[in-house]
Amino acid sequence: MAEPxxxxxLDDRLAAIRAKVEAFDWSLMPDAGSWxxxxxxxxxxxLVDYWLADYDWRAQERRLNMLPxxxxxxxxxxxxxxxxxxDGSRPPLLLLHGWPGSFLxxxxxxxxxxxxxxxxxxxxxxxxxxxxxxCPRSDRSRPQNSCTA
Length: 149
What we know:
34% of the residues lie in helices and 16% in strands. It is of the alpha+beta class. Strands 1-2-3-5-4 form a 5-stranded mixed beta sheet, with no helix packed on it.
């Protein structure tokens, strides 16, 4: 049975993440220059500065929680998905994202698709957050297990 799901990150968790980011010792990070050997140090520092000064997790949490998210147990695994109900007798649509990726890649498609299909499912990969512990690798990697939802 599918159950409604809402993203809720505790304030203590956000504070702990922030403290770790603020405490990072930049002297440990070599500057390899540009992006030839990984993320450019200047770009990474700009991203961290943005995250610390301007990024509003709670605003993102509110936006994400406006999506019709659910969880359900499928063959012993707790799956997290968007279930956008359409109307009419048209066929259902299942959109699967690749790895690495997220079902949020389809976020902009939800509103235009809902009127054209009976229902749309956007499952999150079982290997990503907001689910219970992963199933054994051999089970998770079987395509039929990924499509059971």
